[in-house]
Amino acid sequence: MAESESGQDKTEEPTDKRKTQAREKGEVARSKELNTVAVTLGGAGALLAFGGYLGETLMELMRLNFSLPREVLMAEGSMAAYLLNSGKMAIWAVQPILVLLFVIAFIAPIALGGFLFSGSLLQPKFSRMNPLAGIKRMFSLNALTELLKALAKFFMILVVALVVLSNDRQALLAIANEPLEQAIIHSVQVVGWSAMWMAAGLLLIAALDVPFQLWQTHKKLKMTKQEVRDEYKDSEGKPEVKQRIRQLQREVSQRRMMAAVPEADVIITNPTHYAVALKYDPDKGSAAPLLLAKGTDFIALKMREIAAEHKVQILESPELARAIYYSTELEQEIPAGLYLAVAQVLAYVFQIRQYRAGKGKAPDPLKKDLPIPPDLRRDS
C-alpha cells in the first residue's frame, strides 16, 4: 500500500477543499483513450455522412485540373487563378468534416472532468528537466499502464482491421472494375466504414480506461489522517487561537454583564456561590422580569460588590437563585414557573423602597419557602 512522505497511509477520503485545490491545479480525471475514440468515431461518421459530397467535389476538382484548355496553359497568370480556385474547392469539400472533428475534439476532453482552465498548467516546471525524475517516470506504474494500453490498442486495431479487410475483400476488388466516379464514392464509403469499425474496437479500451482514470485520480487525492487534521486546523483555526477568542468573548460578555448590574431591581444570591440580577420594567413592554446578569463564585462576589456600591437590593434565596441561574439565559425573561416566586421577591423589594422613602411601613420578612416548581429546582 502506498504511503505518504510522513509514513502514514492515505486512507481518508479527500475533502471538498482538497478537491477544489486539485482542480485549480488541473489535477482532474482525463482519458486520452476516450478522446481518441470520440475523434475517430466522429471522423468516421463524418466521412460516411459527407463522403458523397467529398467524392463529387474531388472528381470535379480533378476534372477541372486535368482538362485545361490550351489558352489557359499558354497564359502566365491563369495557373495562379486555377490554383486558388482548386484550393477553395478542396477547403469547402473537407470543411464539414473538419468542423465536426473540431467540435468533437473540444467536447470530448470535457466529457470526463468537465471544462477546466488552469494557469498553473502553463507555468514551466523545471523539475521535469531532472533526468533522474524522467527516468523514474519512464519506469513507473503509470508508464507501464500506458505501454499496456498502447499494445492493447495496436492488437485491437490489427484484429479489427484484418476482420474488416477480410469481409470487404470482394468490395475492394470490385472497385477496380467500376467507373471512376462510382469507384471514388465507393472507396470513400469503404474507408469510412473501416474507420468506424476500428474506432468501435477501441471502445473496449476506453471503457476500461475511464474507470481506471477516475480511480487513479481519486487515489491521488486521498489524504492521511494528519493531512485531514492539518486542513481542519487551517480552516477552523488553531485550538489555542479559538481558545483565546472564546476567552476574549467571555471577558467582553462579563464586562457588559457587570455594567448592567447597577440597573437591576434586585440581586438574588445563594448567598455565596450563585448570584442573579433581575429587572422588571413593564413600561418598556416587558411581560416578565429579565435576567441582566448571572454568575458563580468570583463573578457572584463581584456582582454583590457592584450592587452594594450602587445600592441595589441584595436578597438571599438559595433555591430561587439556583433555579434562575440554570433555567434562564442572559437578557431573557424568566420561565413562567418562576413568575410567582419572583413576583413575591419584587413586591418585597418595592415595599422596602417605599419604606426607605418614608411612604409606608416596614415590610414583613421575605418567606424562605418560595413557590418553585420541582422541575426547576436545582441542588447546590
TrEMBL record:
State where it is primarily located: membrane
Q: How does it sit in the membrane?
A: Multi-pass membrane protein
Keyword vocabulary terms for this entry: Bacterial flagellum biogenesis, Bacterial flagellum protein export, Cell membrane, Cell projection, Cilium, Flagellum, Membrane, Protein transport, Transmembrane, Transmembrane helix, Transport
Disordered as annotated region, ranges:
1-28, 359-380
Q: Where in the cell is it found?
A: Cell membrane
Q: Which Pfam families match?
A: Bac_export_2 (PF01312)
UniProt biased composition (Basic and acidic residues): 7-28, 361-380
The portions of this protein that span the membrane are: 34-54, 89-122, 143-165, 195-215
Q: What InterPro entries does the record tag this protein with?
A: FlhB (IPR006136), T3SS_substrate_exporter (IPR006135), T3SS_substrate_exporter_C (IPR029025)
Explain the purpose of this protein: Required for formation of the rod structure in the basal body of the flagellar apparatus. Together with FliI and FliH, may constitute the export apparatus of flagellin.
Q: Which family does it belong to?
A: Belongs to the type III secretion exporter family.
Q: What is this protein called?
A: Flagellar biosynthetic protein FlhB
List the lineage, top down: Bacteria, Pseudomonadati, Pseudomonadota, Gammaproteobacteria, Pseudomonadales
Gene that produces this protein: flhB
